[in-house]
Amino acid sequence: MSSADARVLVVVPVCNERDSVAGTIGELKMNVPFADVLVVDDGSRDGTGEVARQLGIRVARLPFNLGIGGAVQTGFKYAVRGGYDVVVQVDGDGQHDASYLRGLVDFLLSEKADIVVGSRFLVDDPLRMSFFRNLGIRYFSWLTSHVVGQRVTDCSSGFRAVSRRAAAFYAENYPVDFPDAEALILAHRAGLKIAELPAKFRQRANGASSLRFWRFLYYPVKETLSIAMLLTRRSRAV
Amino acid sequence: MSRALQLAALAGVAIIVWVVYLYRRGRLKEDHALLWLGVSAVIVVLSTWTDLLSAVNWVVGAEKASDVVLAAFVAFLLLICIYYSVKLSELREQNKKIAQELALLKAGVEELSGSSASKEQKDED
User: Fold this and answer.
1) A33 assigned to some structural domain
2) B8-34: per-residue pLDDT in tens?
3) Is ipTM > 0.90 here?
4) Could you say which DSSP state residue A234 is in?
């Protein structure tokens, strides 16, 4: 199947990103005009969902904030019900360069993997990040690599394309709070194949990362625990 | 009977009265009401039936009679806290599912009414 006749859904989770969502949507329309776009509004209070709706985009509005995992999972559920072949996840804050999206979709459609992650570390000039953020991502990528038994450079990238099979799995099983690394491990344990491609990341256009400072202390502990717990559970193939 | 045990018995009775009141007003579900009635019944029995209390004391090797009642109560509170944490996690999961369903249904309704609106538009043309 080529990207021309595959049904592709782009899921854009947003929360209070009124100023950047229109730019993200415009970029998507330009780079992947063949794809349907679903904005999942995770309880925004600034009318982000309304902005998207006025641009003619389908919006699933959550009645209250579920966190990024719950929002993305809403997109997977939508995709499963709509019978999409590929689901792509793109942040609403403009940090993912949509021109890399088609490459992700094509790679997925070549059936070499069920999940393709756009890695910011595989490009020639990676975006500079703060020391702690960099350290955190490296640590979890190292941990994830060990668990899934293959090299993962950017486990916290939310720039991903997944197959129908993986979307069906995620519609039922998706971690809640800071889901990216855990979602890869879950998928690996369910027998889904993971691959990484280079993808350029930009400085967020607007708004702050969902990882605020105090969470830098809490997140690694919680996430490590939750990955450790994952390993004690029996895996279930799909 | 020591002053501490008298107070414990009194507290037990007060809890029973309060729980029955809450249950009758429909503010407590049966299983929870039964749980708390059971707990307060144990408190009342242990603090009034001195022979039983001394027997328990002898078994666990406590020095003071009221220590047993207190320790049992603290242990029970811990257990119930964990139980509530489990319930809260369960509710959070259910809540998430409901929110997602609601969002998807609303999006579906909007799509339907949108497409029927544009159809009407076409019919008018």
Assistant:
1) yes
2) 889 999 999 999 999 999 898 888 888
3) no
4) P
